[in-house]
Amino acid sequence: MLREKIVDKTAIVGVVGLGYVGLPLVIEFGNKGFTVLGFDIDPKKVKLLMEHKSYIKHISADKTAKLIDEKRFIPTSDYSRISECDAILICVPTPLNHHREPDMSYVVSTCESISPYLRKGQLVSLESTTYPGTTDELVKEIFERNNLVAGKDFYLVYSPEREDPGNKDFSTSTIPKVVGAMTPEGLENAVALYDAIIGKTVPVSSTRAAELTKLLENIYRNINIALVNELKMLCDRMNVNIWEVIDAASTKPFGFHAFYPGPGLGGHCIPIDPFYLTWKAREYDFQTKFIELAGEINNNVTYFVVQKVMDALNHSKKSINGSKILMLGMAYKKDIDDLRESPSLKLLELLREKGASVEYNDPYIPSVPKVSPMRNYDFHLQSVELTPENIASYDLVLIVTDHSDYDYSEIVENARIVVDTRNATKNVKISRDKIFMA
Ligand code: SAJ
Predict the structure, then answer these.
(1) Whose CA is nearest to atom 36 of ligand 1?
(2) Domains 2-206 and 240-437 alike in fold
(3) Can you tell me the distance from the alpha carbon of 438 to that of 236, in angstroms, rounded to the nearest whole number?
(4) What is the pTM of this model?
């Protein structure tokens, strides 16, 4: 039954969690002719969608408005409508809690909202990044509370999201989708479902294999960024330019993938995902040393930047205490407006603790509100204007996020001292004596 409905596109697809992962799935299925029920606990999101408005910068409102007008996309907060769906995709956050341990509360509460309305013949796919075992332990247990048996009465699947907001080269339909299921039949149906919207699906032998696949992808990045951050701190003592070395190593046409040092590791994926595996590995009496060492190094590099700021001020016989510092970039990486886990927030806090008065400019972030409950930052800062006079009025300019919009030559020309954590000034020819790499 389900397979036929997928093939003839009469299957009703439920997407739970209408964020940067859920909405692209809604749009892909809707545009392919499926009817999509979109569920979100936040009635404001449902209301905005119905008003043809977008709350996600890189997803334009017209993409969802058209589907809503055509009745292809029905946003709702009424979870009882789950029973109308033939396939249900769960796309909710999996952050870390205050103890840097997995916070499964969104997954658990979502599954508990779905469970009473689950019925025979449905397929459920968890897409949230999580530790191996989540699907066939935690999710299965919740869904089987109402006497349905996973793999027999309903199909249970894990298929990690690989959304990369703002990525111009790859989009939802062109990023291969890894799929693991509890049963072969569940896998076949899940592959058929995702094949309807995504060019390439990658079936694996279990939900755990699929869960670990996504973690490996992001642990790989975390570890390699930590490696170059460690080498940056060593090169600083050896007086070698790490960025020159990485560029030279990149000429190797095989066996090398360039990562670049930075001020620390931000974002809601790379600093977070690896610790889902660290936490689960303890159950197997296993210590994930690489991940923990990488986390330590990526954390230390932010303190290294503070030390380099102090050294640069000291070079002009100034103390950090009482100095005026302008930080360029609050977002966790360039050309986006996302503050989550941004090292800029940690730097702001550390520099202030040392007695500096710190202001910032970020063309993507006009003000820094009270940031996520994870971190109790509360700066209430506004982005300052980047005029030559303004730049010159600070004792030091600290480049933290290398937004493409910045005119680095103008910044160096007008600044008294520049500390560059991203090699953003690599093409600046004048006044290089003002620049300190960090
Ligand atoms: N960073 C470095 N050096 C690097 C690369 C990144 O310091 O060489 C820093 C960034 O400044 C940022 C953090 O690491 O603070 C994470 O950056 P990221 O480039 O990994 O970007 P994210 O956090 O947006 O990661 C997402 C992930 N996507 C998914 O989980 C679906 C990741 O798997 C992608 O590889 C990444 O986007 C991407 O390639 O854009």
Answers:
(1) 164
(2) yes
(3) 8
(4) 0.94
